[in-house]
Amino acid sequence: MREIILAIETSCDETSVAVLAEGKYVLSSMVASQIDVHQAYGGVVPEIASRQHIEHISMVVQEALHTASVRREELTAIAVTHGPGLVGALLVGLCYAKGLSYALGLPLVPVHHLEAHIYANFLLPEPPSLPLCGLIVSGGHTDLIYMPRHGEFQLLGQTRDDAAGEAFDKIARVLLLPYPGGPHLEKLAAHGQANLNFPRAWLEAGSLDFSFSGLKSAVINYLHTKKQQGHTVVAADVAASFQQAIIEVLVARAVAAAKRVGAVNLCLAGGVSANNALRQALRQAALEQKLHFFVPESKYCTDNAAMVAMSAHHRLQAGVVADLSLNAAAVLPMTNWVNDRPVHNVVDNGYNSGKKA
To answer: Is 59 found in the same domain as 180?
Structure first.
């Protein structure tokens, strides 16, 4: 019997279901977006997100199965994101997945959301080989992960304050751009010049960590000062300069991390990996440093169930399954599921050695 996994992803505001066959073929990948619903609030409202998931999930599961031309009886496993994320949103997907697992008598495969983002790179026609170094950039996370083999992860660096995506969204809001802010800021930056000298936080020598709160404050102070002085602000230049400041640090840290662990494969992942300027900059840097660069298709950069299914495929091969006591977790440290150990920061920089991802 061939392996066919149905995966569910509801960690935030996307109700997504995918069907993956043999760990290779995405038979369907459906997403019900909530952008229009949350746009009026300028951001995701957790309670509304949960209710939207409840309304959509059955329909999206049915649509995914129909598009894949797969009957429920043909499924061999159910996978689901159980954290980290909005706990109410996670619970909707988790409860539905547990119900399917119980009703169909199928194994339930728990998937960590950040791990799934890394595995989005394995959806490529020519996926990376191991070991690899991954840069995960999203609204809630900015992490550098070393992955020597499936199920084993080492945290090399992480943000000490704002995630890169969070900083994008906050500056977009200050510039009065629509929600979601990150993509709109990228479009605005394409029309500007990176001619403003905003700060880069390089931190102490040897650190692979990130810090974007100072950059965010510098941009906000610049805008307030210009407004008080009655000077005209070229919003496109602000966006371009801000974006360049973030990208410069992300690229430098990612390349340094890959060099430190001796990985020739460098992967970009997470929602912000859809940013074309970041993709191009990291691709060019990887080329110069003789690294093999990988980045998922744009549709697999943001939250989606196909990446969850790919992660679940490798977990299932290793016998990693859960029982029906599995619960959702808003905060969920990554674990090495080959030996069930927490993933700690392996770079002793005097700040966060030993902190969990």
So the answer is: no
Q: Is 138:271 a contact under the CB 8 Å cutoff?
A: yes
Q: Is 89 exposed, middle or buried (0-12, 13-18, 19+ CB in 10 A)?
A: buried
Residue 327, strand partner residues: none
Residue 356 pLDDT > 90: no
Q: What is the CATH number of the domain that holds 37?
A: 3.30.420.40
Residue span of the structural domain in which 82 resides: 4-120+300-326
Residue 255, pLDDT > 70, answer yes
Q: List beta partners, residue 110.
A: 80
pLDDT at position 343: 76
In angstroms, the CA 239 to CA 42 distance is: 19
d(C-alpha 12, C-alpha 279), whole Å: 24
- Say how far apart CA 18 and CA 305 lie, in whole Å: 5
Q: Which two tokens stand for residue 10?
A: 């509801």
| Assigned domain for 137 exists | yes
Cross-strand partners of 80:
8, 110
State the sign of the Cα–Cα–Cα–Cα dihedral 12, 145, 128, 332.
Answer: negative
Indicate the pTM of the whole model: 0.93
Total domain count, the chain: 2
153 vs 255, 276, 311, 347, CA distance in Å?
18, 27, 13, 13
